Structures are given as structure tokens and as C-alpha cells.
Amino acid sequence: MVERTLAIIKPDAVQAKHSGMIINLIELNKFSIVRMEKINLSKERAEKFYEVHKERSFFQELVSYMTSGSVIVMALEKENAVKDWRDLVGATDPLKAAPGTIRKMFGTSIGNNATHGSDSIENAKVELKFFFPNL
Ligand code: IDP
Ligand code: MG
Fold it and tell me: Of 8, 24, 114, 133, which is the most exposed, with the fewest CB atoms less than 10 Å away?
């Protein structure tokens, strides 16, 4: 089924000028970029986006990281986009991520892990609406 998912190039990867290489991987893997925008998240928006993690010990660290610089948000489309994008992104901890994944290549720690991907079709819809209400 053709699906859409939300991708974010996180501040560490934007700052390190890895966005071009990440976008190249997105296209090499046959995703279509339906929308793309470079933005700065406010503290309030970052807290809202990661609301499910608000009780976690790393929540404030996560919010301060996600507001530390620009992010690039994208709506990606292809067959099985949600799972395929998570697979390309790799495990949360770059040290545990498989070779060839974005986090293995560009992540530097479990927090600074270069990219975000929606984890289910339902969450993809919610997350896409959060950034692209008119999609
Ligand atoms: P995911 O991005 O692979 O779905 P989640 O467990 O949903 O991983 O966590 C969301 C984000 O929170 C991660 O991508 C990472 O940036 C950050 N994070 C997760 N675990 C930790 C941690 O133990 N310390 C610091 N940041 C973390
Ligand atoms: Mg997650």
C-alpha cells in the first residue's frame, strides 16, 4: 500500500551538513518527497511533538536537543513508507544500528541520532498533521 510517513533530519545532522547525503539516501531508496521544510521548533512545539515521552528521564534533554538548531521536516511517500523509512533510519542507538542505516552513518549518540521516523501508520498520520496540516 502506498503510505506517507514523517521524516525529520534532526539538529545534529543539519548542523553537521549531512542533510544533502540523507536526502540522497531518501531518493536512492525510492521515497518521494511530498513536502519539505526547514524550521526551528519552539520549546512548546517540541514538547508537544514528543508528548508520549514526557515522563521519561531524557525528556528535557530531548526537547533541548530538538530546539538546539534547525530541523528539516519531510512528508515521504512510497509503498510501505512507514516501515521502510524506520528500517533505513535504523535503531535508536547508533551503536546498535545496522550497517547502511542513517543512524549508523550519521548518529553520534542515542540522543543525537540524526533522524526521526514515525513508528506506525496511525502515528504517521498524527505526526504529518502536526507539521503539514494542509497535506
Ligand atoms: P525512536 O526515535 O527510535 O523511535 P524513541 O524511543 O521513540 O526512539 O525516542 C525518541 C527520541 O528520544 C530518540 O530518537 C532520541 O533522540 C531520544 N532518546 C531516546 N532514548 C534516549 C536516551 O536514553 N537518552 C537521550 N535521548 C534519548
Ligand atoms: Mg519513537
Answer: 133
- What does the alpha-carbon distance between residue 117 and residue 135 come to, in Å, rounded to a whole number? 17
Q: Which domain holds residue 82?
A: 2-131
Q: Is the CB of 91 under 6 A from ligand 1?
A: no
Model confidence pLDDT, tens digit, residues 102-123: 999 999 999 999 999 999 999 9
Closest CA to 39 of 120, 132, 135: 132
* pLDDT tens track for 41-76: 999 999 999 999 999 999 999 999 999 999 999 999
Instruction: Report pLDDT for 64.
Output: 98
Any idea which ligand is nearest the CA of 86?
1
Q: Is the CB of 130 under 6 A from ligand 1?
A: no
- Number of domains making up the chain: 1
Q: Is residue 119 lining ligand 1, measured as CB closer than 6 Å?
A: yes
115: exposed, middle or buried (Cβ count in 10 Å: 0-12, 13-18, 19+)? buried
- Ligand with smallest separation from the Cα of 116: 1
Q: Which CATH number goes with the domain that contains 72?
A: 3.30.70.141
